[in-house]
Amino acid sequence: MRIGIDLGGTKIEGIALSETGEELFRHRVVTPQGDYQGILQSIATLIRTIEDKVKEKSSIGVCTPGSLSPTTGLMRNSNSVCMNGKSVLIDLQDLLQREIRIANDANCFALSEAVDGAAKNASVVFGVIIGTGTGAGIVIDKKVLVGANAIAGEWGHNPLPWPMDIELPGPDCYCGKSGCIETWLSGPGIVRDHELHNNVFLDAETLDGKARFGDEEAAETLRRYEDRMARSLAHVINILDPDAIVLGGGMGNIKRLYKNVPEIWGAYAFSDSVKTKLVAPVHGDSSGVRGAAWLWNN
Question: What pTM value is reported for the model?
C-alpha cells in the first residue's frame, strides 16, 4: 500500500492506494494557516488516521506547492509561505520516524498521469499545470526527472518563443524578468490580454463560453492564446520530444485547446510531423495526491 499527501494552501488531502492504484481511503483536513509546526502535525495525524483505517503501515509521499533546494535542503517557492526556508523533509521524517519522499505539485501531477492516467502508455511525459501560474513536470519511464538544480520542467519562466513585435518586451513577471511564458499563458495572462485588446475584464471560463456562442472578440483572444501555447509547447517538443503532453489546471478545461493547439504547433516544431499528443488529465484535481503516492516508484 502507498500513502500520498497533498499539501495545499487551504486543505491537506491524504489517500491510500493499493499497489495497482485502487483507492482504498481518502481524507482531508484544513491546513493550519501560517503555522509551520501545525502543518507538520496535521500531516502526521492524517497519516496515522489513514493507516489506522486501512490497518497497514505504508510508504509515504508528499506533494507540496514548493520544492526542496538541492543546495540547502530547505523548502523554496511555496505559497504556504511559512514552509519556505524550513527543513520540511528532515522535520517530517523526524516527526514520523520513517523515510518519506517529497516532490512539487507539477511533478506529482505529471507522475500521476504517467503511471495510470492519460499518459499511462507513454514513455516521455510533460505534465503542464496552467492556472494562476504555469508549471510543469517531466516523467520518463514513469520516473520523475528532478534535474541537477531541481527545476526540471520550469517551462513557465522561459521567454515566450518567436515573439511578435507587439509582444515585446512582454508583461513583467514576479520572477523579475519580462515576457515569461507564464505571463501569457496563465489564467491572469489571458484575462490581461483580453482586457488590453478590448478594455473588458472577463475570466478565462467566461471567455471560453462567449467564444463558443459566437463572440468574435473572445474568439480572437483564444486564437492568440492558442498560437502562444503552440509556440511554447513546440519549444518543449524540440527539446524533450515527449510522447504526450498532459494539460492540467483551470486552463485545461478549455476543450478547444486539445484540437487547435496541435494543429498549430507543427509550424514551429523542428520536424516534418509531430506525433506528440496533447491530452486532458484523467485524475484531474486528484493527480497531486495520487502522484505523491507514486513517488516511491522513483
Answer: 0.95
For 23, phi then psi, to 5°, come to -75, 125
Q: How far does CA 78 lie from the centroid of its chain? A: 13
Q: Does the pLDDT at position 65 exceed 90?
A: no
Rg (CA), the chain: 20
Domain borders along the chain are 2-105+286-297, 118-281
Fold match between domain 2-105+286-297 and domain 118-281: yes
Q: Which residues contact 94 (CB under 8 A, 6 or more apart)?
A: none
**Beta carbons of 248 and 128 less than 8 angstroms apart:** yes
Residues contacting 65, CB < 8 A, separation 6+: 7, 8, 9, 77, 78, 79, 80, 104, 105
- Name the packing angle between helices 216-240 and 187-198 (round to 10°): 140
φ, ψ at 208 (rounded to 5°): -60, -45
* Cα–Cα dist 50/53, whole Å: 5
Nearest Cα to Cα of residue 266 among 281, 257, 276: 276
> For position 285, what pLDDT does the model report?
86
The pLDDT tens digits for 168-188 are 999 999 999 999 999 999 999
Picking from 216, 146, 228, 151, the residue whose alpha carbon sits closest to that of residue 186 is 228
Q: What is the CATH number of domain 118-281?
A: 3.30.420.40
pLDDT digits over 85-144, tens only?
Answer: 999 999 999 999 999 999 999 999 999 999 999 999 999 999 999 999 999 999 999 999
User: Under 8 Å CB-to-CB from 1, ≥6 apart: which residues?
Assistant: 16, 17, 18, 19, 24, 54, 56, 58, 59
Those residues with Cβ within 8 angstroms of residue 232's Cβ, 6 or more apart along the chain or in another chain: 155, 158, 160, 161, 181, 184, 185
CATH architecture group of domain 2-105+286-297 = 2-Layer Sandwich (3.30)
